[in-house]
Amino acid sequence: MTTPGRLPEPYGQGQGANLADILERVLDKGVVIAGDIRINLLDIELLTIKLRLIVASVDKAKEMGIDWWESDPALSTNARHKELARENEELRQRLAELESGRAPKEETP
Amino acid sequence: MTGLRYVYAVCRPFGAALQAQVGGVAGDPPRLLTHRGLVAVVSHVPEADFAEEPLRSHLEDLDWLTATARAHQQVIDALTAVTTPLPLRLATVFRDDSGVRVMMEEREESFLRTLERLDGRVEWGVKVYVESAEEQSAAAAAEKPASGREYLLQRRRRTRAGEEMWQRAEEFATRLHQALSGRADDARLHAPQNPALSGAAGRNVLNAAYLVPRDHSEEFVELVDRTKDDVPGIRVELTGPWAAYSFAGENGGTEDSREGRS
Q1: Of A10, A29, A35, the CB nearest to B92
Q2: ipTM for the complex?
Q3: Gyration radius of chain A over CA positions
Q4: Is the C or the N end of chain A the one with fewer CB within 10 Å?
Q5: Which residues contact B89 (CB under 8 A, 6 or more apart)?
Q6: Where are the transmembrane segments (chain B) (predicted)?
Q7: Within this chain, do residues B73 and B127 fall inside the same structural domain, yes or no?
């Protein structure tokens, strides 16, 4: 074959390639050159915030004020710990309530 | 001559021909524009679609964006099969050939430096997903709690299972990233992908790119394959070989080489 060096068969590419993988690369990676037609891809309005996040590197997203993942338990360890602490607290309270008075307020007459 | 010039990539001159059936953006098969020691890969595209105003509105059309991104990537893929391309960002457009030549000349040194650095290397993408704690414990939670205390115990167990899952996933991802970095010339960590767009199941906890010599790619792929079934509830996904998108920046990084304006 004409391939310079051996390459394994492609994984997850071709027509079926994950759109997110392609957009992530063609919109956010690669060399940025100011051509004659000047478009800042990150200014495009209709790309939703989430689409922007996926195509924007973390720093750029932060610049744009997109930082929801920092408080998203699924994406941030920090937020996850906070979430767990909160839930723990909630459970302790419920447990205390249940164990102390058998939830007197909810007692049916 | 009417039409604008859409530039996909810059490469060193290469002998082999591109795959015949590569369509190119706007249906114009890619042409090679040689200037000094470099080749720009370009398509002629209509002003009606690629001048600033129409291009801006097209980019807001997700279908157009998808088709264009796939066409762009298809050309880059075809180039990757025969040489080491330096991929440019989507929608890099010049008025005419001479505009492209001027750009190539201005950036000649940095292009050559980067091409040298990337020569004979490709990018592999590795993502790690973890099934959400809810999915994991859905089965366990099937039986109805008999009492409030039972309910709380179940809930606590679920929380603990979730936390353990996350810890395992994080340790797994860290270990995998270290192992793969050891086999790669360079590595980049990208922001996790949003499952709403990628359509992938589970949460993306690692989204990394590795720069690997072609000759070592087979071993690299095998290494990834071997880790795949290591931990239940964790999924490893490999994509590639890509052109070295994540490593094409001036400083070998993903930093913008944008020149003060946008």
Answers
A1: A35
A2: 0.83
A3: 25
A4: C
A5: A26, A27, A28, A29, A30, A31, A32, A33, A41
A6: none
A7: no
pLDDT tens for B92-139 read 999 999 999 999 999 999 999 999 999 999 999 999 998 765 555 555
Nearest by Cα to B217 from B128, B121, B127: B121
**Does the distance separating the beta carbons of A11 and B69 come in below 8 Å?**
no
Tracing tokens 């039972």 back to the chain, one arrives at B150
Taking a contact as any Cβ pair under 8 Å apart, which residues of chain B between 192 and 251 contact chain A? 192-194, 196-200, 203, 213-215, 217-218, 221, 237-242, 245-246, 248-250
Residue B19, both tokens: 């795959």
Q: Is B149 a domain residue?
A: no
pLDDT tens digits for range B36-73: 999 999 999 999 999 999 998 888 777 888 899 999 99
Q: Among B63, B89, B118, where does a domain finish?
A: B118
| B99 domain-assigned | yes
Q: Which residue has the higher pLDDT, B112 or B152?
A: B112
What span, in angstroms and rounded, lies between the C-alpha atoms of B227 and B230?
5
Whether residue B188 lies inside any domain: the answer is: yes
First vs last C-alpha separation in chain B: 28
Q: Are residues B103 and B129 in the same domain?
A: no
The SS3 assignment for B110 reads: helix
Is the distance from CB of A23 to CB of A55 less than 8 angstroms?
yes
Q: Are strands B86-87 and B4-11 parallel, antiparallel or unpaired?
A: antiparallel
